Each structure stands twice: as structure tokens, then as C-alpha cells.
Amino acid sequence: MKNRTILISGAGIAGTALAYWLRRHGFTPTVVERASELREGGYKIDIRGAALDVVGRMGVLDEIRRQRTDVQGGSIVNAAGKRVASLDGDTFGGRGEEDAEILRGDLNRILYDLTKGEVEYLFGDAVSSATDTGAGVRVTFESGETRTFDLVVGADGLHSSTRALFFGPEEDYVRDLGYHVSIFSVPNHLDLDRWELTYVSPGRTALMYSTAKDTGAKAMFLFASEPLTYDHRDRARQQRLLADAYAQDAWEIPRLLGAMDSAPDFYFDSLSQVHMDRWSKGRVVLLGDAGYCASPASGQGTSLALVGAYVLAGELAAAGGDHEAGFDGYERELRHFAEQNQNLGPQNIKHMVLGGKWLIWFQMKMLRIMPYMPGKDRVITKILEPIHKAATAITLKSY
Pfam family example for this protein (predicted)? Predict the structure, then answer.
């Protein structure tokens, strides 16, 4: 086997899943993560289609289902908090019968525990500089340590430093969809029990939900915006932008925004996608959001990370560690799947953030009558068809 030592930048879903599969195929992965420890908690995510097959092959599907969010349903509320339309959890969340919903941090912990003790993790550190020498990649970490690895994988998200180091500036690849998202933990002051409430105004959506795994709740904000200027680590600036965007909105929004200062997990970013002609360069390759982010609006970021990790490790193993052949196989097998799931983002966001009062009125009326419609199951199946088609748009090999 060639190229046994592989550095993975990022200990998120993509990085930990890749570490598992590389170790299983006989490689020696090292994972470096800027955070001082594994990121816990987080928002709820879905695992669908081919990704269900991947976690099944990892032997963790039963555990994922055991730790499910168990959200029972959701309601649309008006400014006074009155529930004007309600649906069951799967319909409200756009899930099929077999899909699994879990908190992101819980899934990350499950994957990490599969590799703990077998894979080297470097928490509280990051790649400072790196050079592809042709025979390997010489890496200098922010801690000052220098090491050489056979290959490097950037699994470090939308704002990937690996991509910036080897492929060029972010603006060459990241496409803003014209919206921003913020998610953070809040007290469950409405005493929600595995339920989601959503408030919609022109160009803005806000929601709050509780899960079986969380004694508190999560607040999520989605709003249309022009490109905004801010540092991705400037939390104070991000919070001001969010507060300004919702300054005129009612419902529970003022109270939810009041909780963001003390939230341990405040997240704010543009809804963006990453589009690249090639995911690899020399001995460096990108995985998940770093190479083909579909945006949270797609609902498929986690599934892309899981399937991408499986395919990348498998193609490298099938090529005997030959990185050129392995990276080629990875692109060949995954490209169509990634593109199909990226197509969901721009489509879905139009239904998540509504542009005008008439459109809001029409959608609320449709949601109110949906539970009573003849053939409603057929209607729901038709609505879910695009995401099911994208989620199954790959036939997984057995490596």
C-alpha cells in the first residue's frame, strides 16, 4: 500500500467518518482540529438515502436511531404565537419514512468513538502552512510542530483553510445564495416537547424547536440578504447583523435574540455553495463542504460528508494507495451525486424564506388544508421526490 500516512484537517462529520474508513482500509490517518475538543450539541441534521447505507456499513445505524431527535411535529405561528397550521414531524421536516434525524454533535461523537484509540487526534491545533514536495506534504502546525504526510485531506468546511492554501482564495469557489443563517441554543421558555414552531415574515423565517436529546431548545434564523461584510470569527459583529435583520419582527424573536449573547454555540454564516472543477491537486484533496458544500438549505450536507468519506477512502484503497488513481476514482464516483444534491439548495430555500405577504398567505393556507386533502400522502410523496432522488443518486461500491 502506497501513501499510508494521511493528515485530515477537520474533526467534523466528514473528517471523523474518513478517519474510520481509512483506518479500516489499512491507512494511518491523523486528524487535526482547531477546537480544543470534539464539538458537541449542534443543530438537528438528517441522514438519507445512500448515507443510510454508509452508516449501516459502519455498524452505527441502530445507535443513530436510538439517539434520534424524536421531533413529533411542527407548527406555523402568527405574530401573536397562535398556531395557524400543524403537521407531523416527518412531513414538517421533509423526511421520508427511513430517514434518520439526529443532533449533529451526537453523530459526531458516535463517529469519533469508532476511531478513538486507533486514530491520532490533534485537538487545539491547525495547519499553518504546507508544501506539496511531490514526494509528500510538509506541514507546519500553528503549535510550531512540523511533520510530513503522504497525503492531506481538507475536511475543514465552507471556509476551508486547506482549500485556500492549495487551491486559491475563497471567492474563486464560494457562491453566496443570497441568504444568511444563524443557529444557537436558547432556554426552552415555551416548554416545547419535541416540537418545532416557525414564524414567517417577508424575506425572513425564524423557528424554535426542542428535541428528545436536549433539555433546552434551538433557535434558527434564515433571512434574505445582500452579501454582508464581517470576519467569520467576529461574533459580536455577526450578532449585530442578525439583530438588525430582525429588528422589526414580532412573535418570540426579541426574546430569542436576547439569548444569543450567552449561547455557547452561536453560529452565523451565509448560505453558500462551493463549486470546483477539480477537488484534488497533487497530494491534496478536499472532502465534504470544503470541496462541494451544498448549503444547509439542501438538507444534504451531512449525507454528502458521509458518502464522500466512504468513497474517497474506498477509491484510495482500491488504487493501492496511488493518490492519482484514487482521487480520479473519487471524482468519477461522487461528482454526479454531489451536483444533484447541490441543486437542492437554491430550490429549497425559496420555500423556506418567502418573498412577500401574498406568498406567505398562500403557503399558510396550503399548509392548513394539507392534513385534510384527499390523497395527501401522494402529494407529500411528490413534494419529497426531489430530495429522495438526489439522496439516492449514487450506487455505492463494496470496497
Answer: FAD_binding_3
DSSP 170: G
CA distances from 262 to 185, 213, 258, 265 (A): 9, 20, 9, 9
CB neighbourhood size of 30 (10 A): 18
- Determine contact, residues 220/44, Cβ cutoff 8 Å: no
Bin 157: left if φ > 0, else alpha if -120 < ψ < 50, else beta: left
Q: 13-24 vs 301-318: helix axis angle to the nearest 10?
A: 20
Give me the number of domains the chain comprises.
Answer: 2
Query: Is there a contact between 152 and 162 (Cβ–Cβ < 8 Å)?
Result: yes
Q: Are 98 and 52 in contact (CB under 8 A)?
A: yes
Please write the tens of the pLDDT for every residue from 94-103. Answer: 666 688 999 9
168 is in which domain, residue-wise? 5-69+101-173+273-345
Residues 131 and 137 sit within 8 Å (Cβ to Cβ): yes
76: which DSSP letter?
Answer: E
Task: Tell me, yes or no, whether 106 and 193 share the same domain.
Answer: no
Alpha-carbon span 148 to 132, nearest angstrom:
9
End-to-end CA gap in the chain: 15
Whether residues 205 and 112 share a domain: the answer is no
What pLDDT, in 10s, does the model give residues 267-295? Answer: 999 999 999 999 999 999 999 999 999 99
Tell me which DSSP letter residue 371 carries. Answer: G
| CA–CA separation, 212 and 220 (whole Å) | 18
CATH number, domain of 146, equals 3.50.50.60
